[in-house]
Amino acid sequence: MRKPLRLTVNGQLHQLAVNPYRTLVEVLREDLGLTGTKQGCGEGDCGACTVLLDGVAVNSCLVLAVQAEGRQITTIEGLARPDALHPIQQAFVDHGAIQCGFCTPGVILRVKSFLDENPAPSEAEVRQGIAGNLCRCTGYQKIVEAVLAAATALQPAQGDGP
Amino acid sequence: MAIWRFDVIQPDSLEEAVAALARHGQDAQLIAGGTDLLRDIHLGLKRPRWVISLDRIQALGLISEGPDGSLVVGSGVTMTALGADGRVRGRATALAEAARGMGSPQVRNRATVGGNLCNARPCADTAPPAIACDALLLLTGAAGSREVSCGQYMTGPGQTVRKADEILQEIRLPRLPLHTGSAFLSATNRKAVEITITSAAVRITLESAGGPIREAMIALGSVGPIPLRSPAAEAVLVGQLPVDTLLARAASAAVGDSRPIDDMRAGAAYRKWMVETLVARALQIACQRAREGST
Amino acid sequence: MKTYSVLGTRAPRLDAPDKATGRALYTDDLRLPGTLHEALLHSPHAHARIKRIDAGRARAMPGVKAVLTAADVPGIRFGVSPARYDETVFARDKVLYLGDELAAVAAVDREIALEALERIDVEYEPLPIILDARQALSGTAPQIHELYPGNLSATVEQEFGDLASARSQAYRTRTGRLESEMQDAAFLEPQAALAAFDSQGYLTLTSSTQSVHYVQRTVAMVLGLPAHKVRVIKPYVGGGFGPKAACSTLELATCLLARATGRPVKITFSREEVFLHSRARHKFVHDMTLGADRDGRLLFLDHEAMLDGGAYASFGIATVYYAGSLLGGPYRLPAMRYKGIRAVTNKPACGAQRGHGGVIARALFERLLDELAEELGRDPLEIRLLNMMETGDVTCNDLNMSSLGMRQCLEAVRDGSGWASKRGKLPRGKGIGMACGFFVSGAGYPIYRSDTFHSTATIKVQEDGGGVLLHTASAEIGQGSDTAMAMIAAETLGIPLDCVRVKSGDTDLGVDLGAYSSRQTLMTGHAVREAAAGARDQILGAIAALLGVAPADLVIREGRIAAAREGISLDISAIRDRYTKEHRGWTDNPSSGPLTFREASRLAFLERGTIVGIGNYRPPPLGGKFKGAAVGTSPAYGCSAQVVELTVDLETGQVAIESVTDAHDCGKAINLTSVEGQMQGSVAMGLGEALLEQVKFDRMGKIQNPNLSDYKIPTAVDVPPIRTIVIESDEPNGPYGAKEVGEGAIMPTIPAILNALHDATGIRFGKLPVTAERIAAALRGVALRDDPSAESSSCIPKTGVTPPAPYPPKAG
């Protein structure tokens, strides 16, 4: 029953053969060995499995792998630069926004897409923006602080001159 | 529970999709965003042998102007797109509000308005506002297309008038008269990512900016097997000036048209109180919007 | 207070970059060649006799490598405390809750494993289902568990001081009841296990656990293996909060299947299974009467509690003791009577969850304290200051407040929240409320009767010089213990943090009771400090000998060897030369300045061979001599005060928490950011438990909301900004003065919310969670079906049953 499937993950094309009923999170973790994407509930309630599909944050446990063909999939493994963390990752490290870390990949990817849509958010907007990512450890406080810091870090530098 | 196995068809056109549905009948389920169907399969509530994915049919994801001034929303438009589109916000504010508030950002990025309407859960958030804004649904099957008013679409929990070989293609939002305002409110426990306990969608059209109410539509969600209109509340409102006491009376009348049950999420009594509170508040907002000229 | 080089900073956590990049591996991320996939068969009945179980069809399936039922494994009982070992890996004659495990399958892939479950034929004889603790104890209910006649799991009766006299002297008393529901820890990472035997018969179990030590002992006992042949490792763990502190069928079945098949076996719980397993917050009913004199000084507490413990004991014995003992402080309370009962019902077993038995009890106590304050016309904060214990005080139940910054916490939240300007002045619908709480910094005694050290640590100085390896069996579960321990080691050794490499969570590395009862900062911290001091002293001893000075003349400071006092001169040229000659070709040999740690540790190796510092910690005998005195004892107590401001929508009942001001005395903050993070996480969990969270059962004992959409933990929109104030009282029994923060910080949250709700609405809520529906009903004067019943005079029904064998280990 397996069908050929071409998935582009973090810019790299993979040729797979998968059963059509498999979800994207399963194929990422099990077939591609990309275990950075976590499964917290399998039902789209917690956001731990968040990946970007064409830059848009989705729960990968509720996407059929076959539906992701032809799309650009970004997982947490695709975010860091070779020599440095992505500014969002760095902000999370610097601000103590990571405790057990299980929600972290999903939150960071959601924040990436959120800041792409809304580069200068208010605190309230940040909280709404990450409402789909449950965290049991942090109480969200330092996550929000990290997101606001990341937003500033990602703004193009404001020069003094003309 | 054993993993349920199914095959997936990904047609490139609506015609292909209709043909696949016709071919597989009861063994098939449609999937768009998948946020409802994949949960249902995971929980053993649905066991299709064939899942027909609409995700490759680009036309279903478009919002465009119709010939008669209506706004045509493809059934594959996501909640995110629906809530952000300025034309929807201008035309059917209540629907945009419902779309922006349901689920989580990740769910909204996948869930479609068509899926929400066709799954026909009593707590579906797009149904009451679509009804209040006089939405028409275009169903396309092997025998051709037909229009159904949104208010006639749902017949019971999970049940609609859609035939087995039909696909909900479009939701048409008619141009509403001047001095129309709409609003959507829902009652929940948690402040985000919630399943609605009670919702109210209202649309008010005034005779003039300062004049009496010409038309009133009130649709209640999660207080019956399907979204319920409130003829009693509408009757209180029509022909009257939209003053606070009138709106409060209408809200009170709406309670009698609701038929909530006790369930795991809330009791019937609470839902009735929420009907009154939400209708009253939504009427205030809708009337204000009608006076200001937005819809 | 002293200033430190490393301690008290906001050093970024050592594990943060791996977690931020997806490199951090949790149990389900691990792969071993040839791994079989495991599935567990759960009972669909809440109470039934197993008439017949036949795994033949399942075993015959292609791809199935083993199926185990009770008949295939010895029926060795296990549990948490030895006096209550009441679980077997698989249910034997009866299933006692919907979810109870009967069998386990190992197959070549997950699909086949799950399909095989459906081919295990089980014939059940359904039995009456008891879901209510009162009914279970009533004497007419069938006995659920064969070890507990009358369905009585535990009973506690304690009395301290002269209650009768105190009652007679009381000027005012307040009596009240608070009832809660079963709640879930809802950590994001479901339990998971991976087990494999090597060819010498050594078992390695990797598990998402909070205590590799307790799991190791239980696995060895149940599998009949010598403990030294059982290695338990925890990789990164995605939260624990209590339920992961005890060994479970998931872990044991995985090991048994690995043995039966000769291959690695792996399983991860689904979210639904996490709910079915529970071992989380009990359902509590508390009745209390609190009495005070005319000035508002507390005179006595009379307290009864009934716990619905579900089908097995788990941590429940400790829970029922903690529910009473943790009210002995932080106020001066001369007399206290406590009677607690834990009932067996046909529901998942409940155990330890953040704050253990103290949380709901604290909530009622603090609510009654507010009621007393109101009756006496006093400010609730002032009445708390009036009654507050001070450092050095001892509670009526012999808990010693060796440090207690409770006064400073109260003053900090009073000043930090604008209490004085808001108290009594907010309009209807807005409220401000406050509460206090405290908690142990590690249980005084292990869960099994033993003189074992609670934590051991080794620090091995790398022979090539410059760094150390810190090894403990402690559990980094997200609270930041690895980083904190590395900071303690670095501070003690006098070296930068990045010279310490941590390895933890592995029984090969020592003994550590694990991450529960908020023990690791204090207990593992002590062991680490001792080990680091030992390593340091060996290095300094070697260098001193080389330099012809006394060891006490030297210190290590910021990675350099320095003179301990003025007037000591150190000529290091010869030994530096020796180091340089050994490192021909290196381009960065130290050439100026004081001797570096890099050189010193290398030279010390040349003199002495491998240098290892060893630390061992166990608390001194603690507590009184009365029965149950052990539970609640601790070397130290953390404490906390919180002020909550909220708004209630008076029509919908929905609550918006506007702000939280939280002050916590952690003795000494090892890592300031981590301490704040634990405070904020605790508050968010308390908020959820106060307003949103409840596990719901239908009449057949099935959980109706075994998922994270209908079991509602707070989202980022539900939690307000939390202002944290760290108080440091310098605990004499803690390493560098440090004590706990992980659980004490949740204690004030629920009562602060209850008290703020009263301020906003005038209503004293007696049932948790206080949902919007509950508030709306109360505002309309309507009772809800599940409101606590007003008729029963005591939450504890009369039972004529003798309680089971004594627990816990005797104190002293």
Brief digest:
Chain B is an alpha+beta fold and 295 residues long.
What is the C-level CATH assignment of the largest domain in chain B? Answer: Alpha Beta
Average pLDDT of chain B: 96
Morphology call of chain B = globular
Q: Provide the structure class of chain B.
A: alpha+beta
Annotated CATH architecture of the largest domain in chain B: 2-Layer Sandwich
- Averaged pLDDT of chain C, please? 96
What coarse outline of chain C follows from CA principal-axis ratios? globular
CATH topology of the largest domain in chain C: Aldehyde Oxidoreductase, domain 4
For the biggest β-sheet of chain C, the strand order reads 3-5-1-12-9-10-11
Domain tally of chain C: 3
Proportion of beta-strand residues of chain B:
15-25%
The secondary structure category of chain C is alpha+beta
Task: Count every helix of chain B, treating DSSP H or I runs of 4 or more residues as helices.
Answer: 12
* Count of DSSP strands of chain C: 25
Assigned CATH superfamily of the largest domain in chain C: Aldehyde oxidase/xanthine dehydrogenase, molybdopterin binding domain
Assembly state of the chains shown: heterotrimer
- H-E string of chain B: EHEHEEEHHHHHHEEHEEEEEEEHHH
Q: Per CATH, which architecture of the largest domain in chain C?
A: 2-Layer Sandwich
Rg of chain C, nearest Å? 28 Å
Give a verbal description of the structure.
- The complex is a heterotrimer of chains A (162), B (295) and C (812).
- Chain A is α+β, with helices and mostly antiparallel strands.
- In chain A, 31% of the residues lie in helices and 15% in strands.
- Chain A is built from five helices and five strands.
- Chain A has a five-stranded mixed beta sheet, with helices on both faces.
- The termini of chain A are far apart.
- Chain B is of the alpha+beta class.
- Chain B has twelve helices and 14 strands.
- Chain B is globular and about 55 Å long.
- The termini of chain B are far apart.
- The mean pLDDT of chain B is 96.
- Chain C is of the alpha+beta class.
- Chain C is built from 20 helices and 25 strands.
- In chain C, 64% of the residues are buried.
- The chains are: A alpha+beta (162), B alpha+beta (295), C alpha+beta (812).
- Chains B and C meet through helix 12 of B and helix 3 and helix 20 of C.
